[in-house]
Amino acid sequence: xxxxxxxxxxxxxxxxxxxxxxxxxxxxxxxxxxxxxxxxxxxxxxxxxxxxxxxxxxxxxxxxxxxxxxxxxxxxxxxxxxxxxxxxxxxxxxxxxxxxxxxxxxxxxxxxxxxxxxxxxxxxxxxxxxxxxxxxxxxxxxxxxxxxxxxxxxxxxxxxxxxxxxxxxxxxxxxxxxxxxxxxxxxxxxxxxxxxxxxxxxxxxxxxxxxxxxxxxxxxxxxxxxxxxxxxxxxxxxxxxxxxxxxxxxxxxxxxxxxxxxx
Length: 263
What we know:
Strands 1, 2, 3, 4, 5, 6, 7 and 8 form an eight-stranded mixed sheet that branches. The relative contact order is 0.21. The radius of gyration is 18 Å and the shape is globular. 30% of the residues lie in helices and 18% in strands. It has 263 residues and is α+β, with helices and mostly antiparallel strands.
């Protein structure tokens, strides 16, 4: 982060002392459709399920967190969506529990719901599934010859395949780990596709406007927990780990917000 951005953020956060955090929030301008690669995730956590395709992590507005904690997820409202959610938006750690979806709704869905197109639980989850199918990362990468394998890829090739398919720049995150030999390596872990209020893809680029989104993340500090993923290094090769039936869980990773978390 550039120095002037840090200073700006600090100034804004300092203002929280005297004003309500809600006054810092602005209406969201884009959604972040977030996919994660189960094989990488499951080297960080003890998974109960195995998937050979990218699964959905969430649909996140770029502004606001837990905008209405009293609006709890009512599973009966999305009952018809459950089969597809189990398939494409699974809880990898506790497959039979719905706490992951409840968490995503509380933290992100209640904020997305400020838009009329997403102002119900059914609208929010069904739109997320619709967008997930529209932006088929598994198929897009496969078409470009990028497949899970014991080999390395250039980050620019992965990014280029997505840009060519959707006309917008994604945000690509990796899990950075250290091998037994002390060598650093990065594994492809999470890809974000940014979408405007009309559900059209836009570049996931940082701007001064995005600082407000970061302030929204900083204000409720109780939500600010590490995910284990960070932006991939363009200078380093990227591993796209193949699917294995047995996961080797890394010992130097942080807990991921997937289940058992309270909004």
